[in-house]
Design a protein that fits this description.
Elements (H helix, E strand, L loop, with lengths): L3 E8 L22 H22 L3 E8 L9 H7 L5 E5 L5 H9 L4 E8 L7 H14 L3 E8 L7 H8 L6 E6 L9 H18 L10 H7 L21 E4 L4 E3 L9 E2 L5 H7 L1 H5 L45 H6 L7
Parallel strand pairs: 1-2, 1-7, 2-3, 3-4, 4-5, 5-6
Antiparallel strand pairs: 7-8, 8-9
Helix pairs in contact: 5-6
Length: 340
């Protein structure tokens, strides 16, 4: 029987060695304490149990620890050990020091993958340290995924970074649009870059994780994506459907880049927030997505309302199909529960 995926992205600390312009975190001193983490863990287990009863199928819960740099969290060993049932993913920085590598080595059997954020050279010797971190993680048996953060200033570097990373023991390459100072990526440049990446994957064989919604449009235009007639959600952004992000103080967000608090683990359970919060409900309504909601690719893409709410980066001009979509699986997830 097919499993239903649901991801929890837990911000365990805001501390970080870097000060990236596009970082969405504000107070860099905040950390999640053990008491808050234990509540998060209990609420995840409760949500998992209720979801399996509701859907009558197994649920595949994924837990990712992030920050800041999650390896700077003083209780990180406890957090990883407590979540070992879920094989933790770590979303962290590209340069790892000896202490951080020791944490990973001691918990390597419980870490699903290490995703390192990448955008451009940060300091002298950066590339050498980056490759060293990749090699050590690979030696420890940890899958390495490169997450390249893209904006108008570094978009011309992405394909070169992909080719370079293909030379090392990297298991996946994922891209993410970022925007700061109204720096929205131009659609023509973005389309050219996405098409180029698809062609490079054939040659260099480093797997691209097609999480970026506009990959769907590329594949559709190339004839590699066939639209079925079931009207079920098939992919695209997970916001409002199968993702929760938790801040260091227990605040619950539908997306880490969307500063919209929909609850707090100390007063709410995840199921109640999923079902009854008005903003969460709006995220499952295609009218929220403007022209994207009228597009025939909505079920495969769903746009990005956090970074590009006006769909400036999308180059598609035809939005004349207005279809009703089958949300039955998500409606069954979103049963009314009442209380906490």
């Amino acid at each position: 029987m097919k499993k239903t995926d649901f991801t929890f992205q837990i911000h365990v600390t805001n501390k970080c060695e870097y000060n990236c312009k596009y970082c969405y975190l504000e107070n860099k001193s905040n950390e999640m304490d053990i008491a808050t983490f234990d509540i998060v863990l209990d609420k995840i287990k409760q949500f998992e149990s209720n979801l399996e009863k509701t859907l009558n199928r197994e649920v595949n819960i994924k837990c990712n620890l992030t920050g800041g740099n999650p390896l700077l969290q003083k209780n990180i060993r406890y957090f990883i050990d407590s979540l070992k049932k879920y094989n933790v993913g770590i979303l962290g920085n590209p340069i790892l020091n000896e202490d951080q590598l020791c944490v990973i080595d001691d918990n390597k059997n419980h870490i699903r993958a290490y995703q390192m954020s990448l955008d451009e050279k940060r300091s002298k010797g950066y590339e050498k340290e980056l490759i060293n971190s990749i090699n050590i993680l690979s030696y420890l048996g940890i899958r390495v995924i490169i997450a390249y953060n893209i904006n108008n200033k570094n978009i011309d570097m992405v394909c070169g970074a992909y080719k370079k990373m293909s030379k090392y023991d990297v298991s996946g390459f994922v891209i993410s649009r970022i925007a700061y100072d109204n720096n929205i990526i131009e659609s023509a440049k973005y389309k050219k870059m996405l098409y180029k990446l698809i062609e490079l994957e054939k040659k260099y064989k480093l797997k691209i994780h097609y999480k970026e919604p506009l990959f769907s449009l590329c594949l559709y235009e190339k004839g590699l994506l066939k639209i079925d007639d079931t009207n079920k959600i098939r992919g695209g952004c997970s916001i409002g459907l199968k993702l929760f992000c938790i801040g260091t103080n227990g605040d619950i967000y539908p997306c880490s880049r969307l500063k919209k608090v929909v609850g707090n683990v100390k007063t709410d359970n995840f199921e109640n927030v999923y079902v009854n919060n008005e903003y969460m409900k709006s995220l499952r309504n295609k009218t929220t997505y403007g022209k994207c909601g009228k597009c025939e690719l909505y079920r495969y893409c769903r746009g990005c309302i956090a970074v590009d709410s006006e769909n400036i980066t999308c180059w598609k001009s035809s939005y004349d199909i207005n279809t009703e979509y089958d949300m039955s699986i998500y409606e069954s997830m979103a049963r009314k529960t009442g209380g906490c």
